[in-house]
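Final paragraph of the annual report: two paired records, presented back to back.
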Amino acid sequence: MQVLHDAPLGPLTTFRLGGPADRLVTATNDAEVIDAVREADDAGTPLLVIGGGSNLVVGDTGFAGTALVVATKGFVLDGTRLELAAGEVWSDAVARTVEAGLAGIECLAGIPGSAGATPIQNVGAYGQEVSSTITEVVAYDRHARETVTLASADCAFSYRHSRFKADPERYVVLRVRFDLEDADGLSAPIKYAETARALGVEPGDRVPLAAARETVLKLRAGKGMVLDPEDHDTWSAGSFFTNPILTDTEFAAFHARVREHLGDAAEPPAFPAGDGHTKTSAAWLIDKAGFTKGYGTGPARISTKHTLALTNRGDATTEDLLTLAREVVAGVRETFGITLVNEPVTVGVTL
């Protein structure tokens, strides 16, 4: 277990932003993770758990406490059952399941970060969410001071949310277990219309696993959503805002604002989101409120490839990023009456 003091956190995040942690601990196995957590808890020291750093916005003043980097390794495949250590690189794990001929997470290719973060956020993209294949999550329960195994049904998964995200001070994910599908080398049914179009198939069709993964990677890269140190459009946390889910009453009011702003023929994106609820597109809202690709003149700007990504152009500070985020939130609220919610976790700062 490596321990550093006054260690910069920016290099550990995909934004490359944030000040130092008082203490930085890197744990390479579950026992070290648990020991570091217990030590911080026993001392009453604030604890920040870091995986791949792809969903973190750390304040410029850093973190006054212990930052714990989970660098555990473990990829165990038994038939269709997969167990990943929390520190496994997610995109690499997806590639290995595709090579093994197993379906279920192939459309989650290219998502940065670690395996342990996926159940926290209920990571999803291109028609798949990890909640559809996760069977169990093994975690250290800081309240009970013991390791627990939570079945998928007990994880309270919903859109970009989970039991772990709802109670961030309680659980530290150690391992994630999945049950994938052997479909003779074919993908799960393609659900996302954009993916189906790119593949030249109809929604619901299956395609070769490698084709599904490669297509998703190309789609993500075209939006700056695949990490590339030379491309500042990827110096981001991916989608900075979640897609709003509105009640029928809220959607009707929103619809009226859209027509008032864009004309009587304007129709906003609308997707069923459960009884009495409709999901709309945060990217569409941002764009139609006037924040187009590349918006901004400072060191933090909207991606030139996708309006949903806020980016560090190389010499931004966290405050630069937050200033841009607040401007976008205020503009969308003023135009459409909807308050966007940030997807990344903020540390020491708020919008």
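The closing record of the year follows.
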Amino acid sequence: MTSSDDPGSGALAGLRPRLPSPLREVVDERFARRGVRLLLKRDDLIHPELVGNKWRKLAPNLAAAAGRTVLTFGGAYSNHLRATAAAGRLLGLPTVGVVRGEELAGRPLNPSLARCAADGMRLHFVERSAYRRKSDPGILAAVLRAADAVDAYVVPEGGSNPAAVRGCRALGTELTGHADVAAVACGTGGTLAGLAAGAGAGMRVLGIPVLRGGFLADGIRDLQTGAFGGPRGEWSLDDRFHFGGYARTTPELTAFAEDFEHRHGVPVERVYVAKLLYALVALAEENAFPRGSTVAAVITGRPFPA
């Protein structure tokens, strides 16, 4: 691992991340009656503003930016945009957020985007058709020109690129020897790609996609190839728990999250973490985890506003 891939290295260590993040066992009868231990990997406690996997993915990219403007992408409620904006404020880096939906430019900012702006992020809104094609070199170049950021260091949507994946490898290392299964909610798949690469022999990694589509496996393989030259680790995905797609929810999921908070005193972020925990309870009830096994759920964020 190079220094730029180390989430606690160099100038970024001055932000005082809490690494390794705490690992806490919770007693939950839905697991205990099946002989399964549940651990919570509290990545939401790494840093008060660069929360959870956002620290692990952003830190190596911020180091690589070397003081340049950082430009990245996200939707109107993007956790990634908020974390990037906060990092820019803390480190004195200019940041630009390219936001999906040109129609939003003339509307009052929602609380999430308002937080980004308050942290100094310059917001640039683009039409949705262009946003979908942002990885095309011509479209990206046009976006950079329009945002007056042609020399910016570009971080992809969700922060998942080879540097971020290598940064997330430490998560697998921290869990090795503590769990038989490590589970994480997935958006772009970068956290899982790194987690699986760092996991020790015999530890299985389970991803719970929060988007519909079943497209994530190829993306994870591509990320691991870019970061490590090929596939790493034993991992799988269970696509049954997206609840309709990104940021979609149901009364059942909301009730589940509130109940988990009440049982264990842990704030449950709704877009990712609620779906992960719901999935693990459902899988335990299906006897998907052998008796005597230990499952670690990676808590990648906390509810907004924090």
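The CA atoms of residues 34 and 291 lie 6 Å apart. This concludes the annual technical report; the extension proposal builds directly on these records.
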